[in-house]
Amino acid sequence: SGDLLVCLRKDDQSKVVRYSSTGTVLQEIQYDSQCQPLYKWAYYIAENVNGDIIVTDWKKNAVIAVDRLGIFRYSYSGFSSSTVTTDSVGHVIVTDYNGDKIHMLDRDGRFLRYIIPEGGIDGIRGVCILGDGEMMVGETKTGIAKRIKYLDE
């Protein structure tokens, strides 16, 4: 969107704030439709091509997605979520720190497959999409960055 999305945390509360290019607060996302906190410990954030805002929550061990208006869309959990990114077709790519693999979801949060490169991954933390079906991941335990082909385009 061209805006800046930031995860903010104070004590045991987290929220997502959207800032304009001039630093004006445009939106704050903190609660669901029942006024319950969406996030416990929001950490990494990405915006998908469909406008969804996707956040990894380290205390919930989950990925939480809201639409561009801040309305809850889905949650994907059951692993130690770390970092998140999206690609040009809307796949959500989430690293699994303790599971040493990458989870690939569709734009609606449905699991598609695991991505485990030849030779494995040890303590995966950082991930970014390079384009042409490739990503770069960083291993926090070894300090090694690996280039991984994940799609045949």
UniProtKB/TrEMBL annotation:
Matches recorded under InterPro entries: 6-blade_b-propeller_TolB-like
SUPFAM superfamilies: Calcium-dependent phosphotriesterase
Top-level division of the source organism's lineage: Eukaryota
Gene3D superfamilies the record matches: TolB, C-terminal domain
Name this polypeptide is given: Tripartite motif-containing protein 2
Organism: Magallana gigas (Pacific oyster)
